[in-house]
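pinned: reference chain
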Amino acid sequence: MQANSTLFRQFRSAEGYEISVYAAYYNSLKGAALSHSPQVCYLGQGWITSQIDKLSLDTRETALRTNQLVAKKGDKKQLVYFWYQTNAGSYADRYRMKLSLLPAKILGRDQSSLFVRVAIQLRGPEFHHERAVLDAFSKKLYSALHKRFFVQNTVSVEGHPPWEGTSSRPNEKGYPAS
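pinned: its structure tokens
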């Protein structure tokens, strides 16, 4: 995906669910243009994807606009959310994210963005509880990333994301600090 930097972390919820997080940081619109849907990777690795939909989750700042899909491979099944995040908000559609960054590119301003994917293993055919856990986690993650990258403006002059050179640890509940 030609990201400037990537982050992959595993978190554990209070209920014992493992949630994987992949985030890719892009310091320019050109770099972000190379990001793609996880469906490409999942299908390339033999997973079958279904139940693809767009969601809007209310956070303290705004609505988190995300995509949802269910991925299955053998006995494994995951609920996956993914979104594109900029200073202006979140986008379920990569092209809308790119359009939101166009004025910044024209004006020579910050064009940094994130691609974020979160996934939780499903334990049964019905996954209402897992969805509630992933919803809560995603809202906290979105808020933490927004604050860290875009509100505090902690991206360095060299264009490196705040997680480089730091040891980010989850809080006592296994969630990112918000």
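why pinned: The longest helix spans residues 128-151. The two ends are 27 Å apart (CA to CA).
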